Amino acid sequence: MSEKWTTNLFNPTRRELLAGAAALSATAMLSPAALAQQFPTAKVNTTGLAVTDSEVTVGILHSVTGTMAISETGSVEAEKLAIDQINQQGGVLGRKIKFIQEDGASDWPTFAEKAKKLLVNDKCAAVMGCWTSASRKAVLPVFEQYNGMLYYPTFYEGLEQSKNVIYTGQEATQQILAGLNWVQQEKGAKTFYLLGSDYIWPRTSNKIARKHIENVLKMKVLGEEYFPLGNTQFNSVINKMKLAKPDVIYAIIVGGSNVAFYKQLKAAGIDLTKQTLMTISVTEDEIDGIGGENIVGAYACMKYFQSLDNPNNKAFVPAFKKMWGEKTVIGDVTQAAYLGPNLWKLTVEKAGSFDIDKIAAASPGVEFLGAPEGYVRIHENHHLWSKTRVGRARADGQYDVVYETKDLMEPNPFPKGYQ
Amino acid sequence: MSAARTDHRWLELIGIALVAALILVFLPLVLDIFRLNLVGKYLTYAFVAVGLVLCWGHTGILSLGQGLFFGLGGYCMAAFLKLEASSVANTKIQSTPGIPDFMDWNQITQLPYIWVPFESLTFTLIAVVAVPAIAAFVIGAALLKRRVGGVYFAIITQAVALVLSILIVGQQGYTGGINGITDLRTLLGWDIRPDSAKYILYFVCCFMLLGTMFVARFVLASKLGRILVATRDKEDRVRFSGYDVANYKTFVFCLASAMAAIGGAMFTLQVGFMSPSFVGIVPSIEMVIFCAVGGRQSIVGAVAGTLLVNWGKTMFSEDFPQLWLFAMGGLFIAVVIAFPRGLAGIMTDQIIPRLGSWRGPGRSQPSPAPAE
Amino acid sequence: MFGDYSIGDLGSILVMQGFSGLILFSVYLLMALGLAIIFGQMGVINMAHGEFMILGAYMTYFCSHLFQSYLPGLYPGYFFVAMVVAFIVSGTAGLLVEWALIRHLYARPLDTLLATWGLSLIMQQAFRSGFGAREVGVELPTWMMGSLQVTSTIEVQINGLFVMALTLLITATVALLLYRSRWGLQVRAVMANRAMSGAAGIDTRRVDRLTFGLGCGIAGIAGSAFTMIGSTGPTAGQLYIVDTFLVVVFGGAQSLLGTIASAFTISQSQSTLEFFLTGSMAKVITLLIVIGVLMLRPQGLFVLKVRR
Questions:
Q1: Which residues, listed in sequence order, are joined to residue A223 by a DSSP beta bridge?
Q2: Does C114 contact B163 at a Cβ distance shorter than 8 Å?
Q3: Considering CB atoms only, which of A103, A145, A199 is closest to B178?
Q4: Can you tell me the ipTM of this complex?
Q5: Fewer Cβ atoms within 10 Å of its own Cβ: the N or the C terminal residue of chain A?
Q6: Beta strands in A20-170 (DSSP E)
Q7: A166, β-bridge pairs
């Protein structure tokens, strides 16, 4: 299928999905009812999930209230967009997707409770949800006990793998290694200063980063520091860094502390266009709060940036803005959340069934050609093959993509030698 | 004993009987296991609320850090269950089998000394009660002996809860960090995850709660209880009468903390994990509001208040999550301004006298209003 | 750690670290002033103090947009206007809250704690519904960003200087008000003996209302100043609240000097420890020191009489 087309603003998404579902293009021409007849409920749903001849129910489980609402709003929006688009194309196996949304309220036990409700009471065929590792860890036993399928969108520390979860965000090695290689080559970096918020993701990521810097790149780590979640004063460590003068500041600060950190960095006179700073925790969503002018020049390692120049993304961004407002920004996790319903649909079509065991078995190898990041494929370990990109922050809050790995990075949630 | 006081004791017994009937008979018949498990979770918060009735309602010590003790009890139980779930057979894919998964990810190769005693259930059960009680004793003795009360005490308990939650999150190798301790499976070989186990754990929790309520009632009805109430209202006079007020206050604070800890342990068993999100400031204050809504001076009220507020939370957050926070904030304010003695207060001040007037004049009088 | 640096460098380290400590001191003092006035005067702990600060911050955000859209020429000076607006809005909100809520609860400080916590929940949700769940970025005029080069190795942040100057100004104003104005005299009288002051003809209710309003207004200014160094979101107020309480309680509630001394001690301890240890441990140790001192001397550093 030719890459050249003019973006049809009235129906960009149909073209995008047709391009992606080349193998199923014949099936997609059938009407939903006919499709549902080809896949009778008795055959595609043998475990009592909420599937009828015309509808299938999925769950959306994110925080709408509480401190995490700031981050999870984007994921909810992306999932709803994906579901809406899929429904407009005729749904999954001829059935329209109906979703039940529950609020995790930034409280992990609530996530576990709602997860159980979605699986046991509502019998959802799939759940798009969670954001923090803590919420995922809280719901994982529920999904494994009641045999559900979770599509989890956030980039995280790895060290996990489950039959009942598809991890649509990058795990730590995918985000970190290529970025470090790039900064060492491009900037000739020799010394690093590692910073992070004090909990598992930054600590594990910095551990991987440190091993890579010291053992593979053979460079030096000048300092490694952690701050409690919610910390707002960074002047001491900024002074320390001013004196140590590292070539690269590697910052994994999270949440509200991010805003304080970058504002204080700028106020201290550290110009990120001159001092190299690399982060894996700042997406376009966070820049909204930080203020583009405070972070211009910083590099971020993600797999997706809103400014990516490919036909899928050129259709995705306007569709997202049309649904959720012109001013919305789309970060890496939001895009990964968008992948969830789409990957689920493709997996169901490949398996020819909604049964969780069949989907779990059919997942490895499922490709999504319509991904806004370009292309992804599910690995046997239920993570995604995807490219790593490095972006440079602009004053307007968007990123310029300065580097992209040539090949897809293989997900490796249990990296030997990095632990 | 005055007529009012006898009435009061009868009312309380009736109240406890009603609560027992509700949680032991009515709810299990009416609700499915999912909702019943939720009720079991709420009942674990009720342990904290009952403790608060003792130390806040009747002694005037407001602790905004009960989450600390809830968490300590919960973590002790979680440690035992996690060690059991991390047998060598279950963890053979780890680099170091036989230790909990979060320790493995943090490259810990040997079980830390502080974890080793939790391999024994007896030690764990004792620790669930003893560790928080000792912590409460340390905090309480230091503050209460110096006559720190009221607002200062409340804020310091908040600060202690904050310190503990920061430490737990930071020391993820030892505590599981911000994820908490998850994926708990069996208690001495008995699987706690299937529905049948949930039923049994629910009833165990109910019985333990009823037991705790009786203990609280016993304390309050005894001479100790009268001293506590006297302390709340006029501490100096109690002191002048020769009683060592600090000792009594510390005792009741330790008792309240032990109750909270038992609640924490039951929580871990029923929900299957424990995390630092219970140790912090926000959950501690929420536990206080359960007690306040129900009636901070009424044991029965505290339990009823806990069930009601939590039920409202689940119902609201399913349909109107945004509205729920407005409602909860409004509830805090309403309870404090409009009905400071909580639902139990409404019961005893408004409803019972009206019922009593059927029995003839002069039989019932409202109890005196609280000074705090 | 010190081996790699020359004497000159070490000197610069000390100066810059001292400056950071001073900035932290100003931040704590600014946060705590509003609450100290309220707590000292009325014994009321306002758990919604953080939310009043964030209200000031949101007002600053609002002003920033207003100026950008309608008065771009005056944009560099908008911050001063924003601070005044923040003071007025937070102060008025404080007056309203006092009238509607607090005045019913004077005899019951613990209940005020709970009621104001409920208020903070309502305010948080109101921010979320009004401004969105996401954080908002407040743009600063260019002259406020960056730092001054004092010597070749020493740099001082401009907004740090600004915060320090602001804190100095406000503290001086409050001190002046408290000790030189008629209102201040009334406040001190009521603090010393409420019943006698009432008997002497002072309208204690009015004094309380104005004090609460003033305390909240100062919180609003603090929040406005913090948009330079921190985030503005519905739950951002919670980040500041425990530190603020500890500063107030540590200092001894009824003394302005106590609040100043307490803010100084806590901030210096935190910033020094942070330099030698990591951020988390510094926070934990500072908290433990404060708790330890409070256990030994529960009335705080400076106090007029023992408080219960």
A1: A193
A2: no
A3: A199
A4: 0.80
A5: N
A6: 55-62, 96-103, 127-129, 150-152, 165-167
A7: A151
Q: Look at residue A161 and tell me whether its pLDDT is greater than 70.
A: yes
Tell me how far apart the alpha carbons of residues B24 and B20 are, in angstroms, rounded to a whole number: 6
CA A206 vs. chain centroid, Å, equals 19
**Sequence-separated (6 or more) residues with CB below 8 Å from residue A396:** A292
CA distance C270 to C287: 9
Q: What is the mean pLDDT of residues A126-147?
A: 90
Name the DSSP letter for residue A119.
Answer: I
Q: How far apart are CA B292 and CA C150, in angstroms?
A: 57
DSSP string across C228-264? TTS-BSTTTHHHHHHHHHHHHHHH-TT-HHHHHHHHH
Of residues C127 and B346, the one with the higher pLDDT is C127
Contact assessment for residue A164 and residue A144, using Cβ atoms and an 8 Å cutoff: yes
By the CB < 8 Å criterion, does B327 face chain C?
Answer: no
Which amino acid is located at A204 in the chain?
Answer: T
- Taking 90 as the threshold, does the pLDDT of residue C183 lie above it? no
Task: Choose from A67, A103, A119, A136 for mutation: most chain B CBs within 10 A.
Answer: A103
Q: Identify the domain containing residue B37 by its residue range.
A: 3-353
Per DSSP, the three-state class of A390 is strand
Mark residue B60 as left, alpha or beta (left: phi above 0; alpha: psi -120 to 50; beta: remaining): left
Q: Give the DSSP per-residue string, B28-86.
A: HHHS-HHHHHHHHHHHHHHHHHHHHIIIIITT----TTHHHHHHHHHHHHHHHHHHHHT
State the total domains in chain B.
1
**Chain B residues with CB-CB distance to A105 below 8 A:** 317, 321
Q: How far apart are CA A301 and CA A182, in angstroms?
A: 10
Rounded distance, CA A417 to CA A414, Å?
A: 9
**Cross-strand partners of C148:** C156
Least confident range of A216-230, A367-381, B117-131, C35-49: C35-49
**Percent of chain C whose pLDDT exceeds 70:** 94
Helix axes A235-244, C256-276, angle to 10 degrees: 40
How many angstroms separate the CA atoms of B250 and C220, rounded?
40
CA distances to A386, A410, B214, B340 from A374, in Å: 9, 16, 65, 60
3-state secondary structure of A127: strand
Decide if A215 touches C, using CB distance below 8 A: no
Kindly list the domain boundaries of chain C, sorted by start residue: 25-238
CB contact under 8 A, B183 and A140: yes
Query: What are the structure tokens assigned to A290, written together?
Result: 């930080």
Contact B179/A419, CB-based, under 8 Å?
no
Q: Which of A113, A141, A159 sits opposite B182 (nearest CB)?
A: A141
Give the count of Cβ contacts less than 8 A between chain A and C.
131
Start-to-end CA distance of chain B, whole Å, equals 25
Counted across chains A and B, CB pairs separated by less than 8 A come out at: 88
Residue with tokens 């008065």: C71
Output Rg (C-alpha) for chain B, integer angstroms. 21
- What is the predicted pLDDT for the residue at A14? 52
How far is residue C307 from each of residues B153, C47, C184, C302, measured CA to CA in Å? 11, 19, 21, 11
- Do C245 and B149 count as a contact with CB atoms less than 8 A apart? no
Best of B81, B185, B277 to disrupt the A interface (most A CBs within 10 Å) is B277
Subunits that touch chain A (at least 3 Cβ pairs < 8 angstroms)? Answer: B, C
- Which domains, from first to last, does chain A contain? 12-170+307-386 (3.40.50.2300), 172-302+391-404 (3.40.50.2300)
B360 falls within a domain: no
pLDDT at A366: 94
Between these two residues, C5 and C162, which has the higher pLDDT value?
C162
CA distance, residue B220 to nearest chain A CA (Å): 34
| Nearest residue, CB atoms, C125 vs list B160, B292, B325 | B325
